[in-house]
Amino acid sequence: MTKSVISVRTDTSAGEVPKLLAHHEIGALPVLDRQDRLAGIVSQGDFLRYCLPGYVRFLNMVVYFEEASLLNNISHFASEVTVEDIMTRRVVWLPDDAPLTKVVSVMLGEGVKHIPVLSEGSLVGIISRTDIIRLLAGLIKEGAQ
User: Fold this and answer.
1) DSSP assignments along the chain, one per residue
2) How far is CA 61 from CA 73, 78, 110, in A?
3) Which of 129, 134, 128, 38 is nearest to 90 (CA)?
4) CB distance 21 to 29 below 8 Å
5) 56, 63 in Cβ contact below 8 A?
6) What is the tens place of the pLDDT at every residue in 34-73?
């Protein structure tokens, strides 16, 4: 679990999302409301879906058909859209005492890559698939010694 969580507020400019994701090399940002409660999560996928609305899924392929509007979407996105407009509102979260088996079960069952961790209603961390892989790699390394 990552305890030093990078988060954003609902009223943060959506243009900040890709900057934060790229700078911190992370895949999602928990979104907090004005009372510091978890309001949503915004991921790389949320950003791409909003910025590139002219795509369709066809036979397991993603086809983009409005390339000319891409720059207009990005400009509009960066200046007029807030995180609240693009975030996923139905957040899958877990308590800070959830066992690893529960975390993996929820990730796979819900199809999520990042799970905010709460303690008494407050955000205390976030778990990503990368965190789990690192943990398992460490356990495998220890077991081999």
Assistant:
1) -BSS---EETTSBTTHHHHHHHHHT-SEEEEE-TTS-EEEEEEHHHHHHHH-TTEEEETTEEEE--GGGHHHHHHHHHHH-BHHHHSBSS---EETT--HHHHHHHHHHHT-SEEEEEETTEEEEEEEHHHHHHHHHHHHHHHH-
2) 22, 27, 22
3) 38
4) yes
5) yes
6) 999 999 999 998 888 877 655 545 455 555 555 555 556 6
Number of neighbours of residue 28 by Cβ within 10 angstroms: 25
pTM for this prediction: 0.83
The Cα–Cα gap between 41 and 29 comes to 6
Residue with tokens 């303690």: 119
CB 32 within 8 A of CB 87: no
